[in-house]
Specification:
By secondary structure, the chain is mainly α. The protein folds into three domains: 2-112, Fumarase/aspartase (N-terminal domain) (Fumarase C, Chain B, domain 1); 117-154 and 170-209 and 228-365, Up-down Bundle (Fumarase C, Chain A, domain 2); 368-467, Fumarase/aspartase (C-terminal domain) (Ribonucleotide Reductase Protein R1, domain 1, Orthogonal Bundle), CATH 1.10.40.30. 62% of the residues lie in helices and 5% in strands. It has 20 helices and six strands. Strands 1-2 form a two-stranded antiparallel sheet. A two-stranded parallel sheet has the order 3-4. β3 (199-200), α9 and β4 form a beta-alpha-beta unit. α11 packs antiparallel against α12 (294-318). The radius of gyration is 31 Å and the shape is elongated. The N and C termini lie far apart (67 Å). The protein binds arginine. The site of arginine has 10 residues, from α7.
């Protein structure tokens, strides 16, 4: 009675006494998202088939038929002609069924010594590996765009902030280089993740390995893996790489989000440090005057979904006993969406950064407010023999007097300054004003990692060399 249920289009009906309900089919199927793995599934199958033939587990004729059939299916997928069937649950069974429809029995032999468990683990690794390579290139493009802008503004002065209060003058180029550092670390994390995940699960079969005389190293080499997963149970159940990638992606988004927050702030008319090209902004449906930085705002918002995916994947794995469980099918959508979000965001940001126009006058005016060179005055006194704490106190006193008068330190005459700071008056010479200027302040921070234009240019050259 089971045989009548084993009708075309159902994957394993012979074992079952009743068909799956439509609701359960929809619930358990993954084809409408994992069809995205189609071409890589074929690549994995071809490597597996070549190994089966080399090991004389299937015939050369079968291999030739499988290759011919897969070439046809690849074309069908690329042209959008393959009809994906919900009844066939996932990408693997859809492709296998299509192959068998095209070439007959040879198609039925492809799955010898293999399970969908090691098949899907292989497919995702192949897929993510390629995506990581793309993300590394996009990060390089973004870093280049930021370096170009930093180079133009290696000497453009802006206020540096702590607690969002004016702290000390920095150059805009230096500020941008901070983000280049972040995106450089992100690149390293992506490459690191790729290195650790580049091992072949195939051969693990369902969980315990297989009794056929397979050659896993052959398949690993064929697919460009650095080696094979050493334990079959781990091979089919490990999703560390998905979590590691998503954690790295979450950090990319953290950095993008911090940059976004600054872009929004800098573009606000109250600040007015930059303008973002119109093509990255939107207007308001009611307020005709508005030009809103929607792209950075959205990127800041989308960061949340990647964080969510990271938490989702961690939670997905935490309760699973070894080895494969169907839970693992839930790895794909968060992973796909994390990749899509990061890829789109990086692409847009590289273009948007290149389209930023800077308003040095507004930056300079802001740096002149808030006593940004007070530390420089303290350092001046220290260099003339005062202990730093005493210098700090003396300058704090001078700042307070200036606040009351509504002027800046640099506005004081030498006589005024000496009169205001009687205890240290003897230490203050004419040259003090060189230290109080914005230019003097940034030029003095002339060591590796400092904001002096000379150092910024050196750092840009070093970063460019690292990108080459
Ligand atoms: N679609 C499944 C997944 O994504 C493939 C593996 C299914 N294996 C199984 N034994 N149900 O994980």
């Amino acid at each position: 009675m089971t045989s009548q249920l084993h009708k075309k289009g159902e994957a394993w009906s012979a074992r079952f006494n009743e068909p799956m309900s439509d609701l359960v089919k929809r619930y358990t199927s993954s084809v409408f998202f994992d069809k995205r793995l189609g071409l890589l599934d074929i690549q994995g199958s071809l490597a597996h088939a070549a190994m089966l033939a080399a090991q004389e587990i299937i015939s050369q004729d079968d291999l030739a038929a499988i290759r011919g059939g897969m070439a046809q299916i690849r074309g069908e997928i690329e042209r959008g002609e393959l009809e994906w069937k919900l009844d066939l649950e996932d990408v693997h069974l859809n492709i296998e069924a299509r192959l068998t429809a095209l070439i007959g029995d040879a198609g039925k032999r492809l799955h010898t010594g293999r399970s969908r468990n090691d098949q899907v683990a292989t497919d995702i690794r192949l897929w993510l590996r390629a995506e990581i390579d793309g993300i590394v290139l996009l990060l390089a493009t973004l870093r280049r765009a930021m370096l170009d802008l930093a180079e133009q503004h290696a000497a453009t002065i802006m206020p540096g902030f702590t607690h969002l209060q004016v702290a000390q003058p920095v150059t805009f180029g230096h500020h941008l280089l901070a983000y280049v550092e972040m995106f450089t670390r992100d690149t390293g994390r992506m490459q690191d993740c790729r290195k650790r995940m580049n091992y072949l699960p195939l051969g693990a079969a369902a969980l315990a390995g297989t009794s056929y005389p397979i050659d896993r190293h052959f398949v690993a080499k064929e697919l460009g893996f650095d080696g094979i997963c050493a334990n079959s149970l781990d091979a089919v159940s490990d999703r560390d790489f998905a979590i590691e990638f998503t954690a790295a992606a979450a950090l990319v988004m953290t950095h993008v989000s911090r940059l976004s927050e600054e872009l929004v702030l800098w573009m606000s008319p109250r600040v007015g440090f930059i303008d973002i090209a119109d093509r990255f902004c939107t207007g308001s449906s009611i307020m005709p005057q508005k030009k809103n930085p929607d792209v950075p705002e959205l990127a800041r918002g989308k960061t949340g979904r990647v964080y969510g995916h990271l938490m989702g994947l961690l939670t997905l794995m935490k309760g699973q006993p070894l080895a494969y469980n169907k839970d693992n099918q839930e790895d794909k959508e968060p992973l796909f969406d994390s990749v899509d979000t990061v890829v789109d965001t990086l692409r847009i940001f590289a273009e948007m950064v290149a389209g930023i126009s800077v308003k040095p006058d507004a930056m300079r005016a802001a740096a002149l407010q808030g006593f940004a060179t007070a530390t420089d005055l303290a350092d001046y006194l220290v260099k003339r023999g005062l202990a730093f704490r005493d210098a700090h106190e003396a300058v704090a006193h001078a700042v307070r007097i200036c606040v009351d008068r509504g002027c800046d330190l640099a506005d004081l005459s030498l006589e005024q300054m000496r009169a205001d700071l009687p205890n240290v008056a003897a230490l203050i010479g004419d040259d003090v004003f060189d230290y109080l200027t914005l230019e003097g302040s940034i030029a003095s921070r002339n060591h590796p990692g400092g904001t002096a234009p000379e150092q910024v240019r050196k750092a840009i050259a070093a970063a460019r060399a690292g990108l080459a």
